[in-house]
Amino acid sequence: MPDRPPHRVFTTERGSFCLARCDCGWTGMARRARSQARTDAERHLAEAGHGPEPATGRPLE
Ligand SMILES: [Zn+2]
């Protein structure tokens, strides 16, 4: 298996906002809802090839 950078995502709070971060250095947008930050994290994992399915587009918001 080829070496891959680690993609371990977690959420962190900044003031009244919550944002997702990843060990690879990626940082998501600041969100008011933790659930939205987690969605950002899941999208990042998908784009990195670790998600259950490839990212083919952005979901409607
Ligand atoms: Zn990552």
Q: Can you walk through the features of this model?
A:
With 61 residues, the protein is α+β, with helices and mostly antiparallel strands. The protein has a domain at 9-47. 23% of the residues lie in helices and 20% in strands. It contains one helix and two strands; from the N terminus they run ββα. The chain has one helix spanning 34-47; strands spanning 9-14, 17-22. The chain has a two-stranded antiparallel sheet with strand order 1-2. The chain binds zinc ion. Zinc ion binds next to loops.
**Uncertain segments of ≥5 residues (pLDDT<50)?**
none
H and E order: EEH
Strand content: 15-25%
The helix content, as a percent range, equals 10-25%
Q: In DSSP terms, counting alpha (H) and pi (I) runs of 4 or more, how many helices?
A: 1
> Mean pLDDT across all residues, rounded?
84
Q: How would you write the strand order of the largest sheet?
A: 1-2
> How many β-strand runs?
2
